Structures are given as structure tokens and as C-alpha cells.
Amino acid sequence: MDNTTALQKFEQHLRRRSPDRSTPIHYLSDVRQFQQFCPKPWAEVTRADVEAFVDHGLDLGSPPTTLQRRVAALKVFFDFAADQSEQADRPNPLQPSRHAPRRGERLPRDLLRSLAAMSWPPPLPTARRGCGWSASGAKNGSSS
Fold first, then answer.
1. Which pairs from 24-27 meet CB under 8 Å and 24+ separation?
2. What domains appear along the chain, each with residue ranges and CATH number?
3. I want to staple 101 with a disulfide (CB 3.0 to 4.6 A). Which of 45, 64, 105, 112 is the partner?
4. What is the average per-residue pLDDT within 106-134?
5. Residues contacting 92, CB < 8 A, separation 6+
């Protein structure tokens, strides 16, 4: 199956699978970007090609989350293309654990819930008379 046919069938597959989501738009864009970067037939793409694509994204300053999505899109595409071409035994040239950059550490879910329950920003303390500071004193360089 040639690249154009594979991409058309992949688009139909994604739109059928996720019609109400933006996933098909992003995944197709990611696969097209890879195709421009590496114009080989899909069956000839190697791990080195994928690594070069990810490195190119890092060199351009793409955020890790964007690169992770691109890696995910390519993995889904290569699985789909292998299945469609009846080469399901062909190894996928992409391994997310190897190719996707890591994200920063995330906060534990329990901590996120407790932070969300807090009022943010915290209320400001109310001004009290005789605290030793006043706005007019700060302007004049003295304190009361």
C-alpha cells in the first residue's frame, strides 16, 4: 500500500473511531509532518528515522507533550498500516518508551484534589489600625 492510500484509509479509520474529537485532525497532521520529514514508503521506515524525527522536533523546541502526541500518532498509524497491508507481523518501527520524551513529574492525584479544594488565591488579610504601616507613610518614607 502506497503512502497516499495508507493516509487516506487511516483518516477514514480515525474519523470513524473518533468522529466528535480533535484526535483525527492532530494525528493526521502529525503523520503528514513525518511524511514530509521522511518521504520513504511506510514499510521501509526504521527506528532511526523515527528517532531523527523526534530529535528534529526537540531541535525546533517542540514541547514534550507535542512530541509525545506525535509519537502516539505514528505508533497508531504504523499499527494500522501493517494491519491493512496484511503485514501484522511486521515490527512497528516506533516504541513510545524509547522515542517519546518524558514529561516532568506530575503531582499525585490526592494532592491535586486537595489543592483544588483550597480557595486560591487566599484571601488577603484585612487592614488593622495601628499595625505600624500605612500607604501614606510608605509614600513619604516614614511609618506611623
1. 26/69, 26/73, 27/72, 27/73, 27/76, 27/77
2. 3-98 (1.10.150)
3. 64
4. 59
5. 75, 78, 79, 82
Q: Which three cell numbers stand for residue 97?
A: 518508551
d(CA 44, CA 107): 40
Set of cell numbers at residue 45: 521506515
Contacts of residue 58, Cβ cutoff 8 Å, sequence gap at least 6? 67, 101
Number of residues written out for the chain:
144
3 touches 41 (CB < 8 A): yes
Q: What is the pLDDT of residue 100?
A: 59
Higher pLDDT, 6 or 129: 6
Angle between helices 23-37 and 3-17 (to 10 degrees): 160
* Predicted structure pTM score: 0.62
Phi-psi region of 133 (alpha: psi -120 to 50; beta: other; left: phi over 0): beta
Q: Which of 127, 129, 132 is nearest to 144 (CA)?
A: 132
